[in-house]
Amino acid sequence: MSQHSAIAPVTWVILILCTVPELLLSGADAGLLGDRGWRGDVYEFGAFWGGLLHDWQPNYPGQPWLMFITYGFLHGGLVHLVMNMTVFVSLAKALVEALGQIRFLLLYTVSLIMGALFFALLGAQDAPMVGASGAIFGLVGAYLTRNGIRRARIGAALRPVLDSVIVLILLNIALWWVLDGQLAWEAHLGGFIAGVAFTLVSGPRRRVG
């Protein structure tokens, strides 16, 4: 296996940090280990709760700030995890090669935080939010922006990039409807904007696509 086809260490770290908690919680849900109350307890301490930014009492010092990161390593079940990690791995390879591992990690972190910030501003205050999709939409935003910049430089049409954005919008609307409003579209929007902004500010290093 060549160096370029291997999964980068930073990708493995994020993949493991997202996967292990959900495997443990799913095992507890099924009664295979621990206690069936684990998921609720972990969400209480690690999910994003908008109310903690207002008048809620935190469970430990720093929770209102740490939750901007911790929520992204928890998921709502194995299906949620598999969907997010499949998209994550498919995008990570190209972006790590283009940005390098440090800049990729910075992009992921900024998108994760911005996703939580948008959820705090636009989302529900009394319900927990979990999942890596805010950060993943940041990767999508970065990928599409880099591809758009590359196409503009060579004089190619930007229609494929715009079509991809339209598909993302329609997909979010469809999922929001299917999930009866239980979709953190606010985090998706915040992450996507962060990915676009990060790419425009930092500038491309290598070509993607």
Task: Tell me what you see in this structure.
67% of the residues lie in helices and 2% in strands. It contains eight helices and two strands. The chain has a two-stranded antiparallel ribbon. It is globular and about 60 Å long. The model has no long low-confidence stretch (mean pLDDT 92).
Instruction: List the domain count as a whole number.
Output: 1
Could you name the CATH topology? Rhomboid-like fold
Question: How far is it from the N-terminal to the C-terminal residue, by CA?
Answer: 21 Å
| Strand tally | 2
- The CATH architecture assignment turns out to be Up-down Bundle
Largest sheet: 2 strands, antiparallel
Strands of the largest sheet, in order across it? 1-2
Order of helices and strands: HHEHHHEHHH
Silhouette: globular
Strand portion, in percent? under 5%
The number of helical segments is: 8
Uncertain regions spanning at least 5 consecutive residues? none
Overall pLDDT metric: 92
The CATH homologous superfamily name equals Rhomboid-like
* Helical content band: 55-70%
Q: Which CATH class applies here?
A: Mainly Alpha
- Structural class by helix and strand composition: mainly alpha
Please state the CA-atom Rg, rounded to the nearest Å. Answer: 18 Å
Quick summary of this structure?
With 209 residues, this protein is mainly alpha-helical. The chain has helices at residues 9-29, 38-46, 63-70, 78-99, 101-122, 133-153, 159-178, 185-202, and strands at 48-49, 128-129. The chain has one domain: Rhomboid-like (Rhomboid-like fold, Up-down Bundle), CATH 1.20.1540.10.
